[in-house]
Write a structure and sequence with these properties.
This protein has helices spanning about 35-45, 55-75, 80-100, 105-120, 130-150, and strands at about 1-5, 10-15. A hairpin with a 2-residue loop joins strand 1 and strand 2 (about 10-15). It is built from five helices and two strands.
Amino acid sequence: MSSLWTPGGEHPVNPDPSPPSPDGSTTGAPAADPSLDDEIAAALPDGVRLDDLSPEERARAEEMVREMADARVRLLETPAAMIVANHGMGLYELAALHLSQERPDFAQATVAIDALSAIVDTLEGRLGEAEPTLRETRDQLRLVFVQLKNQSAPDETDGE
């Protein structure tokens, strides 16, 4: 055992960082956080137990659980309207992607456009400053959809 000298005298230094148990003995391992253990165990694949993890795997799992907890806090601090608007823009991108193919996939684009419309129409007046942008992007998608659909329709006079 080593000691630390201070002006008040020598003080023993315990190289084992684990806290003493209630009876004064040390366990040799850091105290585990039961709630953290529960979260890690819940995230493990079926058939894998917490005891099966190596110290490195456990450390990575603990870090991932902490990162998820931090992400939840950040998510709760963000206004819901902003998150919903972000999802709306994702739907815009999805529809635009389906429409931009050499052969547009109108069925898939319709699902994304209808979902964006549902958000914009159902939450009218509650989407904050993003609402006009979402409405405009939805309207642009509808216009492009109709234009592309008209271009892809066979000319009815060709066969006559």
